[in-house]
Each structure stands twice: as C-alpha cells, then as structure tokens.
Amino acid sequence: MSEPVVLVVDDSPTVRKIVQLTLQRERIRVVTAGDGLTALAAVADEQPDLILLDIMLPRMDGYNICQVIRKNMAYRDLPIIMLSGKDGLFDKMRGKLVGSTEYMTKPFDSVELAQTVKRYLESPAVRERAARREMRMQGRLRRQV
Amino acid sequence: MEQPVRILDGDLETLGLQATLKMLSLGGKTGILRVSSGSETLQIALKDGHIVALEESGVTQPDMIEVFRLLMHLTRQEATLLKQQADRNPANSLRVMVENKVIAPDIAQRYVEFAIIQPISRAIRWERGRFEFNHYAVPIQPHGAFVRPLSVDHILLEALRIADENAYAGPIRLSRQAVARWMPHFSGNVRELGLSQDEVNVLCLANGQFTLTAMSYALLLPEVTVAASIEKLLQLHLIELVDEHLEGELEQSLMALIMRSQYQLAQKGRVSTEQRMLTLVRAMGICINGLLTHHREFARTLRGRGQLPESEVNRYLEQRFGSVLTEMQLQCPRMDEIIRFEHGTLVYHEVEILDRVVKGQELLECYHDAVWLVYHFMYHLFSAIIEDETGSSRLGRQLEDLWKSFLDEIEGEMRPIISNHAALRA
After folding, report:
1. How confident is the model at residue A42 (pLDDT cuts 50, 70, 90)?
2. Closest CA to B385 of B262, B250, B265
3. Residue B207: pLDDT band by 50, 70, 90 thresholds?
4. pLDDT tens for each residue of B242-263
5. Residue B115 to residue B218: CA distance in whole angstroms
6. Contact (CB, 8 A) for B32 and B136
7. What is the pLDDT of residue B143?
8. For residue B139, what pLDDT is reported?
C-alpha cells in the first residue's frame, strides 16, 4: 500500500518544516499549505488521510476551513487535528463545534505529534480511504498507459 | 488471507540451518522459515523449495538509487526522477533501476542473492537457537518479477564459502550497525592518500546514513572487507563513527528548541515598534540560551567524558562563544555590559528595563542595536553548534534547512524595524 498522506496547514514555514521532518521519519508523505485557500485546494488535489490545521491563518482561518471540509460528505471521516497556540477552553470547544477530531497545543512535542498522527492513520476508516486513493491512482495510471 | 500452518520446528542444536534448508528444498516446500539466535532473527521465504526472499531483523537495505548517486553513477536529477518512479520506496529501487536500464537484470539479481547469502553465511554457524517453518501457499516476494528463485544448494555453497573466509579474517571489531560519517574538517587531498577502489567507495557512502551492513550490501562486499576499509578511513581521520541514538536525541532537542522559539516569536498582537523589538530580543535570547543548554549536552569536546563540573562546561562555552560576542559588541558599543555572556549563558534581560533610563529616539536606537546584536550572535551560534555536533551529515543539512526557515521568519519580523530605523535616521 502507498504511504499515507498528511496535509499540514500552518502559516509558519518553521512549523511546517518541523512537522514534515517528524512525519517523514515515520514514512508519512507530507504536503503543506501556508494559507486557508491553498489548504482547500490541497485537500481536493492530494486527498490527504489526515489534516493538521493551524487556527490563525491568512485568507481563511482554521475554523472556517474545517467547516468547509466537513460540509463535503466525502471528508466526513477525515481526521482533522487542530494545532494552535491558544490553549483556552473556548477555542477547544469552537474547534469541536466545527468538526475537528482533536486539538493539540503549540509548542507541541514532535514525538507526541507523531504518535497522535500514527494513531489516527491506523484507524480502519483511514486505511479504507488510502486503499480507495490507491485504486484511483492505479486506474489513472492504467488510463495513461 | 490464508492462515499459516506450522509443519516443522526445533532447536538449531538438533538440526542446523544448513540441514533444515536442504530438507525443505528436497521436499519442494513453500512457506517461511524463521530462524532465531539471541537477538537476531532471519525469515527466509521459500517457493517450491527455492529461496525467493529473506528478511533480517533490525536490518534495512539501503536505497540503491541513493547508493548509485553517492557513487556518482547517477546525477542528482536522475536520482530524483528514479525515486519518484519508485514512489520513494527503497524496496522498489532495484526494479525501477532495471526498468530504466540503469542496471542489467543480472546485476539486480546479484544484489538479491547477496542480501540472502550474507545473512545465511552468518546464521549457518549458529549453534544455539530455534527454527520453525510455516507453510503458506504464497510467500512474500518483495523484489518483483525480475528476481529468479534461488537454488538452496547454490546459496548454501556460497554462504559456506563466505563463512569460511570470515572465520579466517577473524571477528569484526565494529558493530554491524555502526554508521560512518565524513569528518567535517578534513583539509587534505583525498587523492593523495593512496586509497583502494573499495576504500574510495566506502568513503563515498560514508554520509552518515548507511550502516556497515548496508554498505556491504550496496557494494557487494563482505562485511569484513567493509569493516577493514572503515578502520583505515578512521585512522586517516576521513570519517567518524556515529551514534544514531545520540543523533536522534540531538535532533529532538534542537527541533523542540526551534519550535519553542517560533512559538515565542509568534506571540504578537497590535503592539508598538518598541514592544515588537523587545519580543524579538526575548524570542532570540530564549533561543540562544536554549542552544547553549543543548550544546552543554551534545558538544563534541564534552562527549564521552561523563559528568563534568559545571565550571568546566561554562569555561568551555565562554572560550568558544564569549569572544565572538565581544567582537560583535564593538559594532554596537551601546550594548556593552547590557548584553553579556555570564556562566555559559547570555544575559539580555537588562534590555527590557532600558526604558527606565533612556527615552525617545535613543531608546529606539538601543533596541535596534540589541536586536542586531542578538540576531547576529544567534546566527553565529547555531552555525557553529551544528557544524560541531553533526558535521556535514544529512541530519546537519536537514537541521540547517529547518533553521533557515526560522531565520526567514525572524528576518520577516526584522525587516519593518530596520526600514523604520533607516527612515528615522534619514
């Protein structure tokens, strides 16, 4: 099976790179987006298995992105982990209300992040999604051949 | 999925690997033979009495595309294209290289054979341990269709020959998991050292990624030969051996530090230029002291010396970095005494109370100098630390890349401050 894909949405290139280094070590392919609209395009193009989503983003904030993604039936089971510097109960609640799966507070520990991501990637729903993506890719390849 | 059926198991003392393999081969068996002795385990996949694959616990085969690039048989661009075709999965590398005619199928077959013969040549001498054979209708065959099943007789003959050669050469002093890495400060001419082709090849692969076992596979050389080459390169101070565990800890420590510093930097709101400059000094100051704390633990000079007295570590840090700070202070004398090096840490907190003694334009000038000084010191400190701790390894490059992103963020914050300052001066 092909490696799982995680989309990291954060306006800080440093955070994107830290997450990328951490997850690549676990053989996870990482795609990144620095703002809200690019993130939505990446969801459609890359069909990620999990999204790590910052809240404060240029062009569209993390809550709105989460809401837009959840409106699409195809992404109802997609794990979305909110990454935020805000540790308040209100922010966590708001994240839950828009449909996020989990909430992690920055500055996060990279080992803990990798464990959380792996836990979600091992769920049956995510495995099924990855299998569907692989079938689609194979179909595309076959058509190209 | 078909359930395996155990049809044979026992002690290696009663039935050695050689006899077990021969028996399974004669019976034309299909399944997986698992042999273990101490902490080592081999899984040998058989199909109709022929060996088709082998897996060794704790051993990962190197990415052959990367190996060919390091040996200069492929350019960086070619390697990138091939890796894309292989889905960045090293298990697909040989197949992709054959498909793209980088290597002939026979060469790929030699790699597969080598990966099977080498571990069997060691396991054949195991006297204590267990084995079990599980029958499966379809065993694993990881290398794809180009691999020809291997005759057990051929593998056993080769394995015995290598085992004899290894016994003659004596035990390897180095660990099979030892990773060699280029020394960061070699200034001589490698061509003048009279290295053999094998030694040159080992040197090419010593980039801190490949274990001794992986090099042996990559170069199709027995582990004893690779170990001898590594020993020679060590004597010539061309390479060093890396402790992967230490590197893992070092990487974790620096990543956590950069993450914390970035978080500090991101703590902004609608604040004045003065406050913005103070936030920058604070974020960079925390980062500098974090780097110094990290270096206390990982500095090459301090490694392997056990618990050292605090004063000795402080003296080392002050000798190494104190003079650099003093030199930088010559360019902004206002910060003399306000930002200083004490007991192996940077003292910068007095910048935060400067507004009690200076006001207006002069205060801005002081803050500007503080930002400039702390930024340049931090820049120097990270470069020196990373060069000392990781040398020119892949980890070093990855960390430098990460650091560059963080510096870009800091520079993004500094840009309006610098242009404001220039405008005010004008």
Report:
1. very high
2. B250
3. confident
4. 767 777 888 889 999 999 999 8
5. 10
6. yes
7. 52
8. 54
Determine, for residues A22 and B255 on separate chains, whether the beta-carbon distance falls below 8 Å. yes
State how far the alpha carbon of B145 is from the alpha carbons of B48, B94, B102, B105, B141, in Å: 16, 11, 17, 10, 8
Q: Which of A12, A29, A107 comes nearest B409 by C-beta? A: A12
Which residue is listed with tokens 């058509």? A143
A63, A55 in Cβ contact below 8 A?
A: yes
Number of continuous H segments (helices) and E segments (strands) in chain A = 6, 5
- Residue A119, burial from CB neighbour count under 10 angstroms (0-12, 13-18, 19+): exposed
Could you say which of B88, B263, B406 has the minimum Cβ distance to residue A107? Answer: B263
Candidates B209, B252, B263: best to mutate against A (most CBs of A within 10 A) is B263
Residues B399 and B395: their CA atoms lie apart, in Å, by 6
- Dihedrals phi, psi of B194, to nearest 5 degrees: 65, 40
Q: Tokens 């400060």 correspond to what residue?
A: B185
The most confident of the ranges A77-81, A123-127, B145-149, B356-360 is A77-81
Q: Judge whether B171 and B43 are in contact, CB under 8 Å.
A: no
Name the E strands within B14-113.
Answer: 31-37, 40-47, 50-56
Q: Which residues of A touch B259 (CB under 8 A)?
A: 14-15, 18, 106-108, 110
Rounded distance between C-alpha atoms, residue B346 and residue B200, angstroms? 44
Give the chain B residue nearest A12 (alpha carbons).
B409
> Do the Cβ atoms of B256 and B293 come closer than 8 Å?
no
In B171-328, DSSP assigns E strands to 179-182, 207-211, 239-242
Buried b / exposed e across B260-298, counting CB within 10 Å, b at 16+?
Answer: bbbbbbbeeeeeeeeebbbbbbbbbbbbbbbbbebbbeb
Q: How far lies B259's CA from each of A16, A91, B262, B283, B372, in Å?
A: 10, 21, 5, 11, 22
* Confidence check on the interface: ipTM exceeds 0.90, yes or no: no
